[in-house]
Amino acid sequence: MTDLERFIDQGTGREPADIVLKGGQFFDLVTGELVASDIAISGDRIVGTCGDYKGRTEIDISGRIVVPGFIDTHLHIESSLVTPHEFDRCVLPYGVTTVICDPHEIANVLGTEGIEFFLDSALETIMDIRVQLSSCVPATHLETSGADLPIERLLPFHDHPKVIGLAEFMNFPGVIHKDPICLAKLEAFQGGHIDGHAPLLSGNDLNGYLSAGIRTEHECTTAEEALEKIRKGMHILVREGSVSKDLLALLPLLTERLSPFIALCTDDRNPLDIAEQGHLDYMIRTAIGHGRAPLAVYRAASISAAKAFGLRDRGLVAPGWRADLVIIDTLENCKAEMVFSGGRKVDDALFATRRPVAPVGLDSVKARPVNAAHFAVPVADGETSVMGVLPGKIITEHRRYRLPAKGNQTTVDLAQDIIKVAVIERHGKNGNHANGFVQGFGLKKGAIASTVGHDSHNICVVGVDEDDMALAANRLGEIKGGFVVVEDGKVTGEIALPVAGLMSLEPYEIVRDTLHHLRHAAFALGATLEEPFLQLAFLPLPVIPHLKISDRGMVDVDRFALIG
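The structure assignment produced for this chain is given below.
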């Protein structure tokens, strides 16, 4: 008997279903009703609802509600600081059964080797990991990346079963001004899915960008921006990560009328935040708690997300649909008590069936050693450009201050919360080193350094003391990448991320506990940001307004040019 024949026989009730969930209700995302019903599962799909079924395995879910598995429509697994296998084990129990992943971070370090690692991992994970091919490696000409991915290196992955399309197209000036490299990538994916990335873009420039066939966007930070993009045919991905928190700002749009054009994503979320708050379930709880209709919210978390990315087999609790199911306590609380992924009940035994995938990029940190003198900033006439950090945002303001001097060197100004920031090229290409100033970290002493620095992932370090900054940066080379906290000449906290300088080889529980210690080590320096390490990681991101820093210098993102 074929699978199709078995589906039909079990759906009609001629044969017992493989699994039947009995005694509960399912949330009908078409009508918004809670429907009391058995749910019959055959293989990887639902074959029966709105009826009574017999099953080879019957599970009592009395008093519980079944909803479709949640879909995270945009994220970088690398930003969870664990490998795809550990991300699978960490996040799937929260009900996230599908993720749309852009391996942009590892691709910027390792190129096609990093993409292959993710695709190989996606074939093994229990969660359905779908991959968007990284469109902008390097992200800009204003930084030094570890790799270069022209269209010729992406095309061999075009027809991979886990590939959906082209990932976030960050170089929106290149699109608008018809850069040949951009056009070649866009042309190759016409008719497929192309993900967008155009913060604050509006008007005719937005029209031109969308005319390239770009359909989704996760960078909206205001309801006004999002509504213009929805009106112009974009599917908006509402983001709530560890740093970028746009959910509350966009909640007014999350209505039953607009929910078919809205989905949810996390973009960047680490295991500590997942443990303390949750994942997409946290977004669902928060949205409903702020008065949004459960029907709108659960649609955005599942069926709307599936439709946006052409995943036509999932997102409803209905016969013929993929059996990605979450059994929750209440719609408002959204606590996942049982999860099914492709008809398989998620537990430790299921995770044990996965085959391991060998890690890559274990020697990717090739930065030259530095000393305190490398962080000297000569006195300049007039005002100095200073990055202004906005808590909960990856946008940084372009501020200007007259900074104090010591001899012929410009120094930090702790009274105004202005400290030094530096980016050090770490791919072994040119040894570039750039210095600047940043406001908003709250540090009163010491230094924090990281090899997680979007998008090129050079070493980024902020600090008050140049000797501590040098120690922190050099320590990253010794541990092959990660995060380091230094206070008064001593390393007070660190986590090793040897997989491309981005991910740990440890279980997510160890990463979570280590991050907890790191956070307290940073707070001991005076750090006031909720997520100082991830906020640090976005300082060198020169595709996000307004002032950033790369290994080549301070970048005026509005002019898309280095500051002289």
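Interim note for the steering committee: The chain has a mean pLDDT of 96. The longest strand covers residues 163-169.
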